[in-house]
Amino acid sequence: MITPMDLIVKPTQRCNFSCTFCSSTEIAKSNSKVDDLDLAQVYIFLKRFPETKNIIVNGGDPLLMAPSYYEKLIEFLDEKEMPTKIHLCTNLWDYYLNPEKWRPLFSHSRVTIGTSFQLGGGRTIKPGEILTKDLFKMILSKFERDFSYVPSFIAVVSEENEDLSMETIELAKELGVECKLNRAMSSGREGKPYSIGKIYNTYIDIYEAGLSQYEFNTKEMLELLKGRGSICPSNRSCDEGIRNLQPKSDSGYEYSSCGSFGDDQRYGIDFELEMEGSLITPLQNEVELKYQKEECISCPNYFICNGCFKTVLDHKEAGIVEESCKEMKYFRERATGLGLT
Ligand SMILES: C[S@@+](CC[C@H](N)C(=O)[O-])C[C@H]1O[C@@H](n2cnc3c(N)ncnc32)[C@H](O)[C@@H]1O
Ligand code: SF4
Ligand code: SF4
């Protein structure tokens, strides 16, 4: 059986924003277009994995590339008769300034658009100039007038804006979209990871407030609490079904099974080697990524605390394993009290 495959493409690490928490732009080699990802690499990947279902484009910001970059990609997919969809995750700023430039691409049947926004001081157009809620709403109004839907958005939670999480979900409700409240990873400009224990208590707050339908991870949490505990804890294989391709760094790093480890330039995969044949799985056998601590193996929270290899490593390296564990045990008590387990 062929495993379904998705591909994250970071065409550029250039960006027109300067978010203080940004996981990726810190590693940009330069502001030069010369350092962008050559589409030839994407074509090689797609020939090796024609079963690729989705191409998720982020960066940097995808709209710093010309629309022709994506048009050429679509031509390739059309020629090969591949059903692959393209999802752009973008700050939409260049669309807001130049809507006519992006209308044809954004209307294409293969293309969907998502965006990002969060309250607090971190999402900055340039240093000191925050993307405000009102400005974000103006961008989305323009988008809705053009395309008759409002894109969903990702909001990153760190200690800087943690008090604003519920207000963020209220905003999603007001806009009539689902948002995704993601914890801050420790990569790029963000020095400290936000603990998984804290974010799961926020998901419980969202559930208790009756707002689950507006937040993706809260719904995932409800699913996890219902059934995943019976699966063998060591059977995690997220590094088989997704790949990340980004501009080659000076050290030669360009390819991985995880977008976040790509930001860190760790656990890379040899691109040429995988293109020749066998599937390489760089994460599932790494001892340091298996769990935060031994006690986890027999804990009902195993999948939540250790479901993501990057989360495991972030918590260990930042020394927040115990702090997060305490929050996570409180989360379990609350979930049980609410009859969710
Ligand atoms: C790196 S950005 C690239 C796409 C685009 N520029 C944007 O902001 O939507 C991709 C996503 O990662 C999120 N992100 C940025 N820094 C992060 C961090 N330290 N931890 C978790 N997510 C982060 C952004 O908010 C965005 O939703
Ligand atoms: S989070 Fe996105 S918009 Fe903000 S600096 Fe990073 S790449 Fe740019
Ligand atoms: S709650 Fe603590 S022991 Fe349980 S899985 Fe999480 S970190 Fe490990």
Brief summary of the model shown:
39% of the residues lie in helices and 13% in strands. With 341 residues, the chain is an alpha/beta fold.
Report what the structure shows:
The protein has a domain at 5-151 and 231-284: Aldolase class I (TIM Barrel). It contains 13 helices and 10 strands. The two termini are 34 Å apart. With 341 residues, it is an alpha/beta fold. The protein is globular and about 55 Å long. The protein has an 8-stranded mixed sheet with strand order 8-7-4-3-2-1-9-10. A two-stranded antiparallel ribbon has the order 5-6. Helix 6 links the parallel strand 7 (153-157) and strand 8 (179-183). Helix 7 runs parallel beside helix 13 (321-337). One iron/sulfur cluster binds next to helix 11 and helix 13.
Assembly type: single chain
Topology pattern, helix = H, strand = E? EHEHEHHEEEHEHEHHEEHHHHH
First-residue to last-residue Cα separation: 34 Å
Largest sheet, if any?
A: 8 strands, mixed
* CATH-assigned fold name of the domain at 5-151 and 231-284: TIM Barrel
Mean pLDDT: 92
Strand proportion: 5-15%
Draw up the topology in text.
Blueprint: E1 5-9, H1 39-48, E2 52-57, H2 67-79, E3 85-90, H3 93-97, H4 99-107, E4 111-116, E5 124-126, E6 129-130, H5 133-147, E7 153-157, H6 165-175, E8 179-183, H7 196-208, H8 216-227, E9 242-245, E10 255-256, H9 259-264, H10 271-276, H11 302-306, H12 309-318, H13 321-337
Parallel strand pairs: 1-2, 1-9, 2-3, 3-4, 4-7, 7-8
Antiparallel strand pairs: 5-6, 9-10
The chain binds S-adenosylmethionine (SAM) and iron/sulfur cluster (SF4) (2 copies).
The site of S-adenosylmethionine (SAM) has 20 residues, from strand 3, strand 4 and strand 7.
